[in-house]
Amino acid sequence: MEIEALRQINDLRDRWGRKMNVRHVLEAAPALVVTFALSIMAVFAAPLPARADAPKPITLVAFGDSLTAGYGLKASESFPAQLQMALQAKGYKVMIVNAGVSGDTTADGLRRFDWAMQPKPDGVILELGANDALRGIDPKEPSANLDKMLSALKSKGIDVLLTGMKAPNNWGEDYAKAFDAIYTDLAAKYGVTLYPFFLDGVALDPAFSQPDGLHPTASGIAEVVKRITPDVEALIQRISQRKTAAN
């Protein structure tokens, strides 16, 4: 707009010469005033640039299988999406990345782990193991895979919320005992917070389950989010404290 106003002034000078009489100025004034006013309005209407010192949102990666990915659900109904909305409603500046892949075992997760952590997040919600348990894989294998992931996260200084899983009863009591212990043992080893059972209050409840009886409905995920949110808030607070101490 400023450029247009100057162009019109220069055009007037070219047409009438530098000795513009009063009548010419008065005739041109309304158009120039409007143009100048619009230019001023444009300046004030333009969005202000983001403050350089404005805090960036905390980034969490939800790394898991179909329970994280949102199998059978809309993207907006997935665990990461619903959790982000719940946290933002509480005033947290947070972005949660959905790094869930349906069907993944802990071995599958380990293979894609390094690139899934790029760029480096502030924190990770680690949810894996359900498919290992469903397939009856020796608990030593998911334990070793999760151990490697937690070790890598610790070395990178990334805060973690580990979510546990429980083995189905069909593999027997000994298997269930060994499998369930994976999460408590690893949480103690690495000093991370453990949310004992990701599907707490939802598993095997027809009101919260899809027809396959395994995957939560949107309302089931909402229940998961409601129950796990306090632990995620604690994770965010730890991250914020670490960032403050580093500055």
Automatic annotation (TrEMBL):
Domain SGNH hydrolase-type esterase, residue spans = 62-220
Which InterPro entries does this entry report, sorted A to Z? Answer: Ester_Hydrolysis_Enzymes, Lipase_GDSL_AS, SGNH_hydro, SGNH_hydro_sf
- One Pfam family of this protein, by short name? Lipase_GDSL_2
The record's CDD domains line, in alphabetical order, gives: Lysophospholipase_L1_like
The residue ranges crossing the membrane are: 25-48
Q: Which keywords, in A-to-Z order, does the entry hold?
A: Membrane, Transmembrane, Transmembrane helix
What GO molecular function annotations does the UniProt record carry, in alphabetical order? phosphatidylcholine lysophospholipase activity
Mind telling me which Gene3D superfamilies this protein's record contains? SGNH hydrolase
Specify whether Transmembrane helix is a keyword of the entry: yes
According to its UniProt entry, one GO biological process term is: lipid metabolic process
Per its record, how is this protein called by name?
A: G-D-S-L family lipolytic protein
This protein's species is: Hyphomicrobium denitrificans 1NES1
Q: What is the lineage of its organism?
A: Bacteria, Pseudomonadati, Pseudomonadota, Alphaproteobacteria, Hyphomicrobiales
